[in-house]
């Protein structure tokens, strides 16, 4: 009957209109997951840049990525809370910048927690390959957690905790 054909056409058009709208305008939850995944990748990338600055002995690059009031617990501080950049500057000036041997670091199993729009925490295993003073290839491992805070659109490392081997191989 014409009425049933008209009803079928209406249902067909309505169904495809809904599918078209759903495809071209995904629900807000999809934006959240997409945004969340991109933000997590951003945190992993800035962490890799920070590690690269350390490996290259580039204190200037390191200070651009870290908050001036950076706090840390790390093996080199012997269990003490370190605040500011002076402690780290010592290692850059006396060890890292003088190293002309290759250093390669891999971040294993990075896990990022997003804490609102402007804060994040990343935990990972840091596997560092280096050549020691006798010319032998070595590896060291540490477990690290870093807290990031975004200010004026820029991510800054405000705190980190390192367990295990010293982050900078003492060659």
Oligomer status: single chain
Query: How do the strands of the widest beta sheet line up side by side?
Result: 2-1-6-5-4-3
Which sheet architecture does the biggest sheet show?
Answer: 6 strands, mixed
What is the CATH first-level class name? Answer: Alpha Beta
Give the tags.
single chain, 36% strand, Nuclear Transport Factor 2, Chain: A, 4 helices
Structure write-up:
Residues 1-24 form the signal peptide. This is Calcium/calmodulin-dependent protein kinase II association-domain domain-containing protein. Residues 39-166 form the Calcium/calmodulin-dependent protein kinase II association-domain domain. One of its GO terms (molecular function) is calcium/calmodulin-dependent protein kinase activity. InterPro entries: Ca/CaM-dep_prot_kinase-assoc, NTF2-like_dom_sf. Helix 2 (28-55) packs antiparallel against helix 3. The chain has a single domain (45-164), classed as Nuclear Transport Factor 2, Chain: A, CATH 3.10.450. The longest helix has 28 residues, at 28-55. The protein has 171 residues and is α+β, with helices and mostly antiparallel strands. It has a six-stranded mixed beta sheet with strand order 2-1-6-5-4-3. A hairpin with a 2-residue loop joins strand 5 and strand 6 (154-164). The model is unreliable at 5-22 (pLDDT under 50). The N and C termini lie far apart (88 Å). It has helices spanning 2-24, 28-55, 59-65, 86-96, and strands at 66-73, 81-83, 103-114, 119-131, 137-151, 154-164.
């Amino acid at each position: 009957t014409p009425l049933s054909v008209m009803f079928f056409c209406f249902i067909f058009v309505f169904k495809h209109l809904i599918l078209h709208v759903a495809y071209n305008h995904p629900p807000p939850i999809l934006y959240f997951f997409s945004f969340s995944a991109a933000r997590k990748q951003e945190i992993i990338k800035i962490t890799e840049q920070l590690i690269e600055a350390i490996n290259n002995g580039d204190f200037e690059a390191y200070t651009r990525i870290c908050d001036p009031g950076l706090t840390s617990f790390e093996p080199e501080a012997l269990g003490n809370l370190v605040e500011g950049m002076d402690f780290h500057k010592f290692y850059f000036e006396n060890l890292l910048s003088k190293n002309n041997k290759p250093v390669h670091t891999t971040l294993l199993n990075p896990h990022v927690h997003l804490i609102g729009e402007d804060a994040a925490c990343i935990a990972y295993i840091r596997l560092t390959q280096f050549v020691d003073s006798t010319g032998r290839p070595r590896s060291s491992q540490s477990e690290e957690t870093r807290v990031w805070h975004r200010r004026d659109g820029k991510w800054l490392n405000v705190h980190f905790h390192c367990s295990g081997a010293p982050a900078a191989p003492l060659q």
